[in-house]
Amino acid sequence: MREANPSGDEPLGGSGRRAERTGRTDDRYSDAVMYAERLRPPILWWIVVALLASTFVIAVAVFLPGWVVLVSLVVAIAIVIGLMLAFTATLRVSPAGFRVARSTIEWAYVGSLTQLSKDELRKRLGPDADPRAFVTYRSYVDEGVEIAVDDPADPHPYWLVSTHDAAKLATAIETARSAA
Asked: Going by C-beta distance under 8 Å and a sequence separation of 6 or more, which residues neighbour residue 5?
């Protein structure tokens, strides 16, 4: 028996939650995540963007009443948070497939994998790039993984994804793909 959620809405637990909520029992819809990584901007980016936003607030503060300055401060904070969240990408490996931000590729369409070092990633983004590729690149992340797409109907020949640890991500993808 599963233990109850403190709110009483649904039971806590692993892969059965989505099946219980939606009535689906197929394992492909399991929400068990085998690997997850969040590509967040470095703290220095947060500081720089916050300082730029504060200069806007200071410039406005000289000429406007206090309540407008307060509203400007709230707007500046919202912009900073929005920008930094826009630069954050999430990578997930689950039984359903590999998910990058809002895009998912199912295991049936995942082809060969290539781990890329910093220099190899730079080459794949530059002179060796295919403009049709699906790319999730973050300049503050040094490694990457290239995933060939085995789907003739898909316009993307491969996915090129930044990651903090290419070996771990590639291992997780291989493990999940072989289990599917």
From this structure: 11, 12
Residues in the chain: 180
Does any domain span residue 24? yes
Number of structural domains, the chain? 3
Q: What three-state secondary structure class fits 172?
A: helix
DSSP 11: B
| Domain match, 121 and 145 both | yes
Residue pLDDT, tens place only, 74-104: 888 888 888 888 888 999 999 999 999 999 9
CA distance 146 to 170: 9
99 DSSP β-pair partners: 92, 104
Q: Flag whether 149 is in a domain.
A: yes
- What's the predicted TM-score (pTM) here? 0.71
Give the span between the Cα atoms of 41 and 43, in whole angstroms: 7
> In angstroms, rounded to a whole number, what is the distance separating the alpha carbons of residues 69 and 78?
14
pLDDT of res. 31: 61
More confident residue, 7 or 111: 111
Residue predicted with more confidence, 30 or 75: 75
Q: Which of 11-20, 41-50, 165-174 has the lowest mean pLDDT?
A: 11-20
Distance CA 57, CA 76 (A): 7
Q: ∠149-98-130 over CA atoms, to 5°?
A: 35
Q: Is residue 166 in a domain?
A: yes
